[in-house]
Amino acid sequence: MKWTVCALLLTLSLQATAYRKDVVPFGIKVNGIENRFAEFGIFATPGEILQLDLMDLDPANLEASFDATPLQPAGNALNLKMPPRAGTHRLVLTDRRTGSRMDLNVFVMWQHDGARDNSLNGYRIGQYPRDPFRGLTVYNPPEAFIEVTRENAQLAVSPNFRLGQFACKQGSGYPKYVVLRPQLLQKLETVLEALNAVNGNVTSLTIMSGYRTPSYNQAIGNGKYSRHVWGGAADIYVDDNSDGVMDDLNGDGKVTRADSEWLARFVDSLERKGRFGDLIGGIGTYGSTASHGPFVHVDARGYQARW
Fold first, then answer.
1. Please, what sign has the CA dihedral across residues 212, 238, 27, 183?
2. End-to-end CA distance of the chain, in Å?
3. Residues 118, 165, 39, 22: what is their CA dihedral angle, to the nearest 10 degrees?
4. Does the pTM of the predicted model rise above 0.85?
5. pLDDT given for residue 17 in this prediction
């Protein structure tokens, strides 16, 4: 079987560069989430005090800045108070000893009650269920949303994915608002890394659908507890020839649901091997319709689901 991926087609016409396996020798932990990517997104609320725990990095060797303002660690952590208003900022961490650098795009979000208010700054969101599915906290209504503008849509949220790729498809201009879970980004990066290891020409995944507002999700007839609505799911496919549909992954000369099943088995094998750690979740396969080709649903809900 021969198949490659040359470029990433995005609904919002965002272009990806060559695959980046960008990790650094040190890490940080924020809100219980560990990151070792050289570029990643951090999501916070106005005025929040973020504690960034340093891992494998002597604080004496840390050079840090927030929007070019120097920072000093307190012990083995950086305590950083977020600005009082929503916006996008840059946190840079450098190990003076090795020169290794981590660039973090910090998105201070708009606070919004997803269970009560239907819109945010004129952008229709709809209402989230008040009762979490199975009582799980990952289904609590979000209290803050990331603003997506023409200017920040291209900003990296991980080495190989951009913020604008996850915006809801509902018709509207900018700004848009999204919920996006770092766990999903880490899972997608793991999938892409494994695909690239199998075939070095694989450089990207197409995000066919990322975040969905409850309003849009209801309009397309999807279940109200879809993980897309909580920013924890993505519908993906591999596109070699940039024609906007899944490639012939199983080598049978056709593009069918069998190709999404091939990709789903690949993702499932990573989970069975423990490659996702605690980022287990759902995998669903879908065939072609009049509006799209085959694709695979991937999420990090915290428990296994297959369909």
1. positive
2. 26
3. 150
4. yes
5. 52
